[in-house]
Amino acid sequence: MKEKILEMKNLVKTYTMGDEEQVVLKGIDLKINRGDFLSVLGPSGSGKSTLMNIIGCLDVPTSGSYYLSGERIEDLPETALSHIRNREIGFIFQQFQLLPRLSAQKNVELPLIYAGVPEKERQLRSADILKRVGLAEKMKNRPNQLSGGQQQRVAIARALVTEPTILLADEPTGALDQQTGHQIMELFKELYQEGKTIVMITHDGDVAKNGSRIVRIVDGNLSEGVYNA
Ligand SMILES: Nc1ncnc2c1ncn2[C@@H]1O[C@H](COP(=O)(O)OP(=O)(O)OP(=O)(O)O)[C@@H](O)[C@H]1O
Ligand SMILES: [Mg+2]
């Protein structure tokens, strides 16, 4: 049996603006097993980023339950959430979110600094993982000395270096041209084949097809899509 690492039950997220209430996630049920490569496909405004923020413990649901690695998340205070976030989640964003004044290697070392890993080990682990994503020659470059695809590889290395439970990517190819985006998807597929668990948010059906499993979110409702694998 596959190991379940994430479960949401009847999860609801409501935003209140003045006296207007908007229900953005309308009772989401979702299970993710270790080793899944899940694509969450949906149009603009459907609630994808809201869902990603909850999966990534950046926000909490209004009601319903959310379990991550067996822990019940929805009632935890921010300090506990930030611990879980650092341990369990590797974030990958559309705009890479690298620190411009730091080298590729220093960017990858950052989460290890937060985790209290000593310097020598940080250097070894960041160098290893940058080699893994094909950037052995570029470790000393700053982000503006790298192409978009290379910057996204640095961001992927930064997400991988702490060995998180889930890689969580919001439109990871959204800022890249088609060919570069394709190369990044090839890297995701390799990581999937190595056993990594990936959740990827996208509005692009062709990008979503790279996943082993697709769910669709439309107007805050989630439904299981087709299985590729
Ligand atoms: N902090 C917030 N306060 C109030 N409303 C919000 C907030 N965040 C999102 N919303 C609303 O929730 C809905 C879903 O937004 P969300 O960002 O999750 O969509 P999305 O699917 O990620 O869209 P996109 O593809 O454009 O990124 C939108 O109607 C948005 O206006
Ligand atoms: Mg979004």
Automatic annotation (TrEMBL):
InterPro entries: AAA+_ATPase, ABC_transporter-like_ATP-bd, ABC_transporter-like_CS, ABC_transpr_LolD-like, MacB-like_ATP-bd, P-loop_NTPase. It holds the Pfam family ABC_tran. One of its GO terms (cellular component) is plasma membrane. It is an enzyme of class 3 (hydrolase). Keywords: ATP-binding, Hydrolase, Nucleotide-binding, Transport. Its EC number is 3.6.3.-. One of its GO terms (molecular function) is ATP binding. Residues 6-229 form the ABC transporter domain. Gene3D superfamilies: P-loop containing nucleotide triphosphate hydrolases (3.40.50.300). This is ABC transporter ATP-binding protein.
